[in-house]
DNA sequence: TTGACTATATATAATTT
DNA sequence: TAAATTATATATAGTCA
């Protein structure tokens, strides 16, 4: 998306991963939230960054 | 998205939830996959539909 | 950097078949 | 009708402050 078309392939450089990781993770979280609200779905989402940091989303349904 | 703007609020009618649920769940899965590949992230995603069906995505990192 | 912008790719609501 | 299409809303890659 955006100005360039992205290949779904590994961004090799760890530093270059950081901004995309942050943006995509945040978008994924938003989508999970929307699905949970719109369709009354229970969702758990767990993401570990390459650096080993944990991010999670969960709703109680 | 699409032709109408969607409110982030519960679709009350269970039948009317079904198509959006299927589309949004599939989009969420795709986004999770993209994040896992692009940024070498480990992700687990668990979704229960209102009907109690389980959908999951996980990558081994 | 971290965040804002914006041009453009993508996702999807409504529609059609 | 379930799948394909299409028009449009949304997400985001690249850019810049």
UniProtKB/TrEMBL annotation, chains A, B:
Any one Pfam family match given in the protein's UniProt record, by short name: SRF-TF
SMART domains recorded: MADS
UniProt entry keywords in alphabetical sequence: DNA-binding, Nucleus, Transcription, Transcription regulation
Main location, first listed in the record: nucleus
GO cellular component, one term: nucleus
Domain MADS-box intervals: 1-61
Localization terms from the record: Nucleus
GO MF annotation, one: protein dimerization activity
Transmembrane segments: none
Entries under SUPFAM superfamilies matching the protein: SRF-like
Name assigned to this protein: MADS-box domain-containing protein
The species this protein was found in: Triticum aestivum
């Amino acid at each position: 998306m955006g100005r360039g078309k992205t290949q779904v392939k590994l961004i090799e450089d760890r530093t270059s991963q950081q901004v995309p990781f942050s943006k995509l993770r945040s978008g994924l979280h938003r989508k999970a939230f929307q699905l949970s609200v719109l369709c009354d779905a229970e969702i758990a989402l767990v993401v570990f960054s390459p650096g080993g940091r944990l991010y999670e989303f969960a709703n109680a349904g």
